[in-house]
Amino acid sequence: MKTVDLIIPVYNEEEVINLFHNKLTAALINLPYIFTIWYINDGSKDGTGSKLAEIAGNDPRVQVVELSRNFGHQAALTAGLDRAQADYVISLDGDGQHPPELICELLKLAESGYDIVQTERLDAEDISAFKRWTSAAFYRLINRIGSTQITPGAADFRLLSHQVVEALRNMPEYHRFLRGMVAWVGYKSIILPYNPPPRMAGKSKYSLQKMVRLSMDAVFSFSLVPLYIGISLGILMLLLALIEMIYVLSFWVTGNISHLAPGWSSLMFIILIVGGFLMISIGVIGVYIGYIFQEVKGRPVYLVREPESLMENGKASDR
Ligand code: UDP
Ligand code: MG
């Protein structure tokens, strides 16, 4: 029988965890796989830890990983991925918003040959207009300025084959945006849309601050576009200098020099030229830093699909 690791990060979920585990157990009945359920306790400050210990005591499939403090959702997922050894690895939230009933569907698609089965959250009424709007704006931005296309509404609810997990393990970057990293690795993937049910209990643990941090990680680790802003601004200033020159010349040509304030033209010209060159050089330095940043991340230059590994010699990917 094939093995499956389930990775479930939890942070202050004492109200939901028992409910969730029962729902999960029910969903796994009759599935012909050997499951290991990894609960990653992301430094919960409530009774989640003791509840997890109790669950692990009653269910031999359960493994609990305790993080030393709250490192955040993406770090907790990574802790799980680092431990996963199974043929398939499925990550899902511990609040019931990623319905465990879909696990059966995910495994079916994996068996038909997909390495990544990515779920896509369809719009749910109970998600606040603010979250929906910011999420849509975020995906539009990241897909416009980044070179990796990320499905809007892609959740951290997905199945990964063993070789994709291996690939992710070779991406030890600190600022992690797993949705982007999974899109970046490539491999045969398929999207499974689902209707998100409401949280079983408790409140969302994604504060506005955590959401902002996650989107910054996404923007800055998947795009160098912000670096080119300096260069563009510099070029804009040089263009303004040119326009100013033409404007001043027009006074000369029409013989209206007396209408120009003395000293204005030369001062304006110098400011624009110097400003432009400064912005451009800052931008150029920024680009170098960006390249250093990409090197420091130490991502692999290419990844190889296992079966055809002999035929496909490493092609450099889009970095
Ligand atoms: N979570 C975590 N660490 C955090 C924040 C959240 O492990 O710092 C877990 C949380 O317990 C849940 C999942 O990540 O299982 C998704 O969080 P949440 O449901 O609060 O986010 P939302 O669904 O509102 O985006
Ligand atoms: Mg949730």
Q: Spans with pLDDT under 50 lasting ≥5 residues?
A: 309-319
Structural class: alpha/beta
Q: Which geometry do the CA atoms define?
A: elongated
Measured by DSSP, the beta-strand proportion falls in: 5-15%
* Cross-sheet strand order for the largest sheet: 3-2-1-4-6-5-7
Counted beta strands = 7
Q: Give the N-terminus to C-terminus distance in angstroms.
A: 38 Å
Key attributes of the depicted protein:
319 residues, 10 helices, 48% helix, binds uridine-5'-diphosphate
Write the layout of secondary structure elements.
Elements: E1 3-10, H1 17-28, E2 34-41, H2 48-58, E3 62-66, H3 73-83, E4 88-91, H4 103-111, E5 116-121, H5 129-145, E6 154-161, H6 162-169, H7 178-185, E7 189-194, H8 208-222, H9 225-253, H10 264-297
Parallel strand pairs: 1-2, 1-4, 2-3, 5-7
Antiparallel strand pairs: 4-6, 5-6
Helix pairs in contact: 5-8, 9-10
Magnesium ion binds next to loops.
Report on this model:
- Helix 9 runs antiparallel to helix 10.
- The relative contact order is 0.12.
- It contains ten helices and seven strands.
- It has a seven-stranded mixed beta sheet with strand order 3-2-1-4-6-5-7, sandwiched between helices.
- The protein has 319 residues and is of the alpha/beta class.
- The two termini are 38 Å apart.
- The chain binds uridine-5'-diphosphate and magnesium ion.
Short structural description:
The protein is an alpha/beta fold and 319 residues long. It has helices at 17-28, 48-58, 73-83, 103-111, 129-145, 162-169, 178-185, 208-222, 225-253, 264-297; strands spanning 3-10, 34-41, 62-66, 88-91, 116-121, 154-161, 189-194. Residues 9-11, 13, 42, 70, 72-73, 76, 93-95, 97, 204-206 line the site of uridine-5'-diphosphate (UDP).
